[in-house]
Amino acid sequence: MEHAKIKVRGRGQAWGPPDFGTVTIDITSKSEVGEGAFEDVALRSRELEVIFSELGIPEEAITSSSVRLWDEDPRYKVNYSQTEIPTEAHAQNRLEVRVPDHETVGRLVTAAVRRAGAKASGPEWQLRAANDLHRDALRMAAEDARAKGEAQADAMGVRLGPVLEIMSSDRDYSGIEHHDYLGRFNEEPGPSMEAAFKIHEGRVYVDASIEVTFSLE
Asked: Which of 39, 168, 177, 205 lies at 20 to 30 Å from 159 by C-alpha?
């Protein structure tokens, strides 16, 4: 005879500082003829490499996520004469850069925009898989599930028995209420390696969910 059982879901959240941030740096250019766009992107990308070296960002922290070269026919744009159809050459180099702390993020974004004419977005704050916050959140979720199970069992006049099945998941998020928008650049550029504004890394949280099936005694 199958024993009575109960299934409950527990929830846990753990907050803490991020391990690193990821910044997206985008260099784009266009020219009417020839290899102008390609050469412009290549020159500014070499300046980016200098910036990475000055900031001590290693090669393994940099990923080329999109390198593109293409021609565009302006006939699909408004106000071009059908008899005059110059071809526009486009080039793009997009990099994902893992940065270890908020101070380096500010210096990287400032130098990339001022010295390489790049566009920058981010940072996206993240945790390493080995960060204790993952375990803390799962532990709290398990404690929450047991507390709910005991409360329900007590209300029904029975006791909570052994665990029969466990399903769990966890995911980390940036803490939005602690996450600053990027500020405006100073009108007068300062030293090349000085950040134009402060970046706040705030905290991130791990949201864990656990579904536990208990037997009832």
From this structure: 168
Residue of 110, 111, 96, 105 whose CA lies nearest to 61: 96
pTM: 0.69
Buried b / exposed e over 96-116, threshold 16 CB at 10 Å, is bbbbeebebbbbbbbbbbbbb
Neighbours of 204 (CB within 10 A): 24
- CA 148, CA 144: separation in Å to the nearest integer? 6
The pLDDT tens digits for 93-107 are 999 999 988 888 989
**Helix 102-116 and helix 36-55: axis angle, to 10°?**
150
CATH topology of domain 1-18+127-217: Translation Initiation Factor IF3 (3.30.110)
CA 64, chain centre distance (Å): 16
Chain region(s) in the chain for CATH 3.30.110.170 = 1-18+127-217
Residues 6 or more apart whose CB falls under 8 angstroms from that of 149 comprise 6, 8, 160, 212, 214
Model pLDDT for residues 62-121, shown as the tens digit of each residue: 998 888 777 766 555 555 455 555 567 888 899 999 998 888 898 999 999 989 999 998
